[in-house]
Design a protein that fits this description.
The structure is a homotrimer. Chain A is built from eleven helices and nine strands. Chain A is of the alpha/beta class.
């Protein structure tokens, strides 16, 4: 099934992923063959919230295809404060562009935008909700370092409670065979029940560990995430000692498999000791580069789709109780539910 | 007569417009033939005041011609605060660029800039004074939807007192035959006397209406503008009821001609009901796209002009009482009068 | 010797300069031959401190070679505040780019960045420390206007105490034969003793003058710099009268040689009277254009170097007492001394 917008990785099939990844490997093998592939094409890069890594990755991807970009990296540089709706901003922008990539602090904003765009929309992060191109990046790195994505034991370490990228990765990996997890997190930041329920529902095995030391020897992939000190409520006696149990050190790497793949969505702060960087199993910087190549494959597809818009019918007022939902400010959005009967924009229960 | 800078639409002839529009239609018909037309050319995009629509339109126009851009979208990103004069900033920028497009809150700033530039300067808005490429956009849309620009009844609705784009459109349309106006505005925001005097002087008929409902049936073109609540002084009993008389609804569209063209410079807030968007007579989003194409035609011409500068002679101090005039901060500017003996920069009476 | 990064002009040989300048003259002679020379190449432009002139110059240089850019012009637009180290920001950025140009308020930041980059790094200013591409610009302008760089009497006028560009120019000119200086500055802003010691050590003659009037007749090159009022401590009776002695006027130009070259790094405020601009000996705006061409030569070289990184060994903690040194915040930086035993990053004495 062709994909018109990339809002959530849940929307795509494994077959679509396979095609995208194949295109990515062809670009990596012969990048010079693609340096004019998007010549004359324009990407609108709308960052309603600042971002360095994701924005740079999309920019580099589009430019390496010979395409061009316009947009803003900071909403303060725009005159959007004049009271224009998101729908009108997108309608106007899409009249100039061939694809739109958008980051927005409101949950569901990318989906809302896609309803009013003449061209494909890519979600580069809608608040704490979804970030599908990070998931593409993670899958690409696993595929590149291990050959295949399935048949793997994946350690998830750090903040498993609030970590958007970790939740997205888990739901994405459900599409691949024989994926086992080891959940390595402090009590205060452990994987939410709805995510472990998801694993059970999809027959994905998981174990729980209370330190990286106890788990590292079993892992094929270790996905590290940043723990923010502010997440602790002060009840913990010694936050430093606690955090050290979820810190990757050169010493710990000695206990790991020789073909371990260490991933991190970046930015890294202290959760990976700098001495690990030189270890060939540390793939987090190559991961950033793989992210650029899979975005090239995505843009190559999306910028060549035909222009068109079908205005959504207005079927009554949408009501959602989530204060971060895009529907709280964009009052014209049509009523829409997700598969579970929750809000069709932010996926919260109604 | 060749046009070196585009500061005011008043400066150009109908013959120049005809040539520009012809080039625009050729670009629209065969855009791929033009995707390298500005290869190797650079546009400096200097936005001393933030803008989304105009900036995006110029960026997309230049990039679709295969050209490139540099500049700033927010003066806070620059080091211009180090005390450099506008003349020096322009002189320096023009040494890198092939054309300069500039928005500046000071009236007359684009004209002042053009005196110190080695390359053509395009005015993308100088405060509340002029915005000639919006006028190009409006004329292009009328020409595209009606075939010709003259022989037309144009309704102007909303804020006719402060609306810069409306005044520019009226003066531009004076160059075309058989243009009639219907002026549809609340008392507090009616067309200024000097503009109706201009219509009389140019033998353009006009009628006055106190609601959109009473006028819409007669119109070939309806130019909608935003009314800002702050414009009312509180004397009006019911601002909501008043504003509703100048709001375009799907209901009202039923009374309009079948070939009406609805325009709006954007951003739209509430003055056009969202349900109108799907009406094929609503052309305000296509208008944005036409604006990109006519700017392509303009940039194609301007970026291929030879580099050169002739410093203005200093003929004594210029004095203007308008606090928003560029001459209030750029004290070195040469004395200059307009055709009416007013300030040659901001056009205010001396 | 090939040059991998341009951190300080001191690091390069005259032979390297000669090659770069030759490339520059070829680009100036046939710019169209180079408009695809960097096609498919990406420059990351990281301005941690705002800059107009230097940023525009690099952007124009890269774009005129057919290359592309990404980056930021204002650190507020980035998410670097999330606590990422400079090393990681650079490592990530270098995975997308072919060369990095960076301005940063911390002294030694560009050198530190170069240790963690897969691609060449260009220092576009590290606080008050170094700005080697301004020196390239100055040398190019002297070579273009005089044919050779040596055999010349150079007047340095204005703020010789804090003027980073002046100090860099002096150390650069030490590589060329028969350079004499006239130091023209108020007492409070005279050339520091370590710089005059440098001149003596390199057998460069210098004289001192207390006004531009007394010195101008002897000069082949006059390098003007901006004096900031805040530099005076109030002890001077009449700052205006004092500053006027270091102001270049059209009147003074009558006493200068017919082949004088007047330079200024820009921005100019009042230290050069505007009436001088039209004098053919005033080269400060052409200097800006020459700066673009020499940066084209530099980018042409750097963007074609192979990708690679050799992580620095950690040889114990670096300690430097300079609060502006990059090592005060980037605590992981390896110990490093300069040739004089000072800090290897900011060059201050330890």
């Amino acid at each position: 099934m062709p994909v018109r917008n990339l809002i959530s990785f849940d929307d795509v099939s494994v077959a679509w992923w396979d095609g995208l990844y194949k295109s990515c490997t062809e670009i990596m093998a012969r990048p010079d063959d693609y340096r004019d592939a998007c010549r004359g094409k324009l990407l609108a890069s709308l960052f309603f919230e600042s971002s360095t890594r994701t924005r740079f990755s999309f920019q580099a991807a589009m430019l390496r295809l010979g395409g061009s970009l316009f947009g803003f990296s900071n909403p303060a540089d725009t005159s959007i404060s004049k009271g224009e709706s998101l729908a009108d901003t997108i309608r106007m922008t899409s009249s100039y562009a061939d694809t739109i990539v958008m980051r927005n602090p409101q949950e569901g904003a990318a989906l809302a935008a896609s309803l009013y765009s003449e061209v494909p929309v890519i979600n580069a992060g809608d608040g704490g909700h979804l970030h599908p191109t990070q998931t593409l990046t993670d899958l690409t790195t696993i595929a590149q370092t291990r050959g295949v994505i399935g048949n793997v034991t994946v350690g998830l370490c750090g903040d498993l409670k609030y970590g958007r990228t970790v939740h997205s990765l888990v739901t994405a990996l459900a599409k691949f065979p024989n994926v086992r997890f080891v959940l390595i997190a402090p009590d205060a930041l452990k994987m939410p029940e709805y995510m472990t329920a998801f694993m059970r529902a999809h027959l994905m095995e998981y174990a729980v560990a209370d330190s990286l030391e106890s788990a590292i020897g079993d892992l094929d992939v270790l996905y590290m995430t940043r723990i923010q000190r502010e997440r602790f409520d002060g009840a913990e006696e010694n936050v430093d000692a606690l955090m050290s149990k979820f810190t990757l050190t050169a010493e710990l790497m000695k206990r790991a498999k020789s073909d371990l793949t260490v991933l991190h969505p970046l930015p890294r702060v202290n959760e990976i000791e700098r001495a690990v960087d030189a270890d060939p199993r540390a793939k987090y910087f190559e991961q950033a580069r793989f992210g650029m190549f899979i975005r090239m494959a995505l843009l190559l597809d999306f910028t060549h789709q035909p222009r068109g818009i079908e205005y959504p019918a207005h079927e009554g007022e949408h009501e959602c109780g989530n204060p971060k939902c895009v529907t709280k400010t964009e009052l014209y959005l049509p009523k829409r539910l997700n598969a579970d009967g929750g809000c069709g924009y932010c996926d919260k229960k109604l």
